[in-house]
Amino acid sequence: MASKGLRTIPPRENGGNADIKQLTRGSRLQLPVAVPGALFSVGDAHYAQGDSECCITAIEMGATCVARFNLLKGHAARTGMRWPRFAHDGWFADPKWAVPHGFVATTGMPVREDGTQEGENLTLAAQNALLEMIALLGERGFSREQAYVICSVAVDLRISNAVDLPNVTVSALLPTAIFE
Length: 180
What we know:
Elements: E1 28-30, E2 46-48, E3 59-60, H1 75-79, E4 85-87, H2 95-98, E5 103-108, H3 122-139, H4 144-154, E6 156-161, E7 169-175
Antiparallel strand pairs: 1-4, 2-3, 5-7, 6-7
Helix pairs in contact: 3-4
């Protein structure tokens, strides 16, 4: 399979379309290299994106990427590194957006509409938090479609509780300053 190349649309161990909003200018990214002579490409820059990018889009933009490479030959094999890692020495965004002063949040737990508990299902908890945020935005006059887009570009999902298993909690946090 490696001789044919790997699809980069899904996020995967070699990078791919991870859509990590904190991976911004000034970040350092480590990618495990699985094959000799591997190539590197970059794309899909976002002007704004919520942590979930829930409707499969952010505010896309054209961008220029300047990259510097250091090959750490054998590092992934020596350390057992399997997944991408990244670091940043400063703020990934203006702190008012990273830690908003004013926000509204909804929560979700892994419980289906019929009351069935699906313990530890973070995907279901995130879905429920987002559906609740869409409903809340609907109460504030937005159409369902508008609310969905707002969630994709401005809502951050947070794992708020993973200790009280099986009842995990995901919060959907929306900075209120986006409406000013």
